[in-house]
Specification:
By secondary structure, this protein is α/β, with parallel strands linked by helices. It folds into three domains: about 190 residues, no CATH class; about 80 residues, no CATH class; about 150 residues, Rossmann fold (3-Layer(aba) Sandwich). Helix 19 links the parallel strand 3 and strand 4.
């Protein structure tokens, strides 16, 4: 068996994908720490703790064992204890690979506080125009003066965006508008076209983009707007999923909705998006499930036999991943299980709480419901693995959990992965398991890259 790196983010490189999802390769030591459930666990590096806290972190959102403010304060403390280059790499991965928006900005702000922020790094982390203002709002909470490197980073980021993007994300409710950002950072235009664009920003003359948000806020008819945007193929996959209920309520024919869905590119959409949409508009569950299967087809298959073990203990339920989200960490875990089911050559799905229980063969939404209804109880991963190992053999085992177990697992019988969907500073912390934190397909990309080296 190959030696196992600890978690998914650092300086080592397996291949091109591992450049995006590499390992810390830090060993755990003695049982001197405790997880949130109070179980003694091995101590791990501050970098490993920061990675665990970051890659499944929805900033200032409460979790089962910890409130959002305490969690954010722990993040800030850990940033101060880590090398700036490591924090920069982690923030970049959190934003670009894991699609997290707010926590990478907090990491950048903490580097700025340490006077370790480079403008080019801030510009790399900022991927959307409104993130410039969001970063400024965070930064100005306790700092009146704006540092030169913050200005440099914001100016570099500003120049990445075109008129459509700047206008789309210029929100009236924002603490700092796009215009405010430009006046504070003073970006210098590279071309006459860009100079003209900056003048339109200054004069508040940006052309209003043609999106469902702008049309509806301007009072346009909902049905006409959605039908026109679909007819012009201007409604992207996420906007389509988020607006299914709006379309139904406005009278868009079901046949129109289904026809548009058939040709929609869903390659980058994760299963939990379809789970959330089906919960809101169950009459489209069949359509959404087919779209979900289509999204899974683009992912490389895992060879051999895989066991997927999903945590259904109490701490997985009830804490939404964000205030605006319809899903909790259990939904995220079920979505990852659905994804695993589709990409594994041979697979068994099990759930665990106080013990392990095999799930009858299911796919898609039926699999999620079967896992959810299988059992409930505490979190005893060690005892559950003992039971599972009696009944099955495997090449790899993937445990999807928030890692707050009341007992400690032994070494796996094959390659062992922990897919951590919780944002706690300690978890299993076991040398024999590879821990990968996050909700997205990036966690499965890492498994592929690791095993293909």
């Amino acid at each position: 068996m190959k030696p196992h790196p600890f978690t998914a983010c650092s300086h080592n490189i397996i291949n091109q994908r591992k450049k995006e999802m590499s390992s810390l390769n830090f060993r755990a030591s003695a049982f001197t720490e405790r997880n949130a459930a109070g179980t003694p666990v091995r101590a791990i590096s501050k970098e490993a703790q920061l990675t665990r806290m970051t890659l499944a972190h929805m900033l200032w959102e409460n979790q089962f064992y910890i409130d959002g403010q305490t969690s954010a304060d722990t993040l800030k403390t850990l940033v101060a204890q880590c090398e700036p280059q490591f924090v920069k790499q982690l923030a970049t991965q959190a934003r670009t690979k894991f699609k997290l928006r707010h926590v990478p900005l907090l990491l950048m702000r903490e580097l700025a506080r340490k006077h370790e922020l480079r403008g080019v790094d801030l510009a790399e982390v900022i991927q959307r125009p409104d993130e410039m203002g969001e970063f400024l709002a965070m930064y100005k909470q306790d700092s009146k003066a704006i540092s030169n490197q913050v200005k440099v980073g914001l100016a570099m980021a500003f120049k990445k965006f075109n008129e459509f993007q700047l206008a789309k994300w210029d929100k009236n409710s924002a603490a700092f508008s796009i215009r405010d950002v430009m006046f504070l950072s003073h970006p210098k235009p590279d071309t006459p076209e860009q100079e003209a664009l900056f003048k339109r920003v200054a004069n508040q003359e940006l052309e209003t983009p043609d999106t469902w948000e702008t049309q509806l806020s301007a009072g346009a008819d909902k049905r006409e707007t959605f039908e026109r945007l679909m007819g012009e193929t201007k409604l992207g996959a996420l906007a389509f999923l988020r607006n299914l209920r709006n379309m139904v309520q406005s009278g868009v024919p079901e046949s129109t909705i289904r026809q548009y869905a058939f040709n929609l590119n869903v390659d980058k959409v994760l299963p939990f998006r379809f789970i959330a949409a089906a919960r809101i508009v169950p009459q489209f569950e069949d359509m959404l499930e087919e779209m979900m299967f289509k999204a899974c087809k683009s992912i490389e298959k895992l060879s051999g036999k895989t066991v997927v073990l999903v945590d259904v203990s109490g701490s997985m339920y009830g804490s939404a991943v964000s205030k605006k989200s319809d899903i909790d960490r259990a939904d995220a875990a079920f979505a990852l299980a659905i994804l695993c089911r589709e990409i594994c050559e041979e697979v068994e799905i099990w759930s665990f709480a106080n013990t392990a229980m095999r799930i009858a063969p299911r796919r898609g939404f039926a699999l999620a419901e079967a896992i959810r209804n299988s059992q409930s109880g505490g979190t005893e991963l060690g005892a559950s693995l003992e039971r599972l190992d009696i009944h099955t053999k495997y090449d790899r085992i993937i445990v999807i959990t928030d890692e707050q177990s009341y007992d400690r697992p032994a070494k796996p019988k094959g390659i062992g992965y922990i897919l951590n969907v919780g944002s706690y500073d300690n978890g299993i912390n076991h040398d024999a398991w590879t821990t990968i934190t996050g909700f997205s397909e990036a966690v499965l990309d890492y498994i592929q890259a690791y095993e293909n080296q």
